[in-house]
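[User]
Protein folding is very new to me. Any chance you could explain this protein sequence and its structure tokens? I have pasted everything here:
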Amino acid sequence: MEIESLRRASMADLREKYRKVFGEETRCRHREHLFRRVAWRLQALAEGDLSERARGRAQQIAQDADLRMVAPPHFFTVGGERVQTAGGDRNRRPPDRRLPLPGTVLSRKWKGRTILVEVLAKGFRYENRPYSSLSAIAVAITGTRWNGLSFFGLTRPAGGQRKERPRAKK
């Protein structure tokens, strides 16, 4: 019953209950996390916690120096041939699908001149100067703020179809 009442408790009530059952303040502001921690603690107090043996084993596993985080180099082989793997950067955002592949040259006519921009692996090149974004290039060209994708006509997803607009009748 006590755990069920916690489901509807306010954040302030959850924080207060945490302070009572753990004997310390929490900095957590995530409602679901607080609910789970308090519910677990209440259950452990009522039903009994882990045995000392179980706690010791969990501590051993957590401190195991042989625990591998990366596969060994010979792990990635197929038929005796080493397979080249790409290093993943999980903290990096996926590339925008509206941008063309590196090496592509974007062109745009602006006030009687043709603007050519080369897409690089990281950024863009305009008039032999690197830029981090298309918007920065659009500002350099026009002197005003522009959405770079819009300025270069890349607002549709790659491979996306253009919507047909009904034409005005004459």
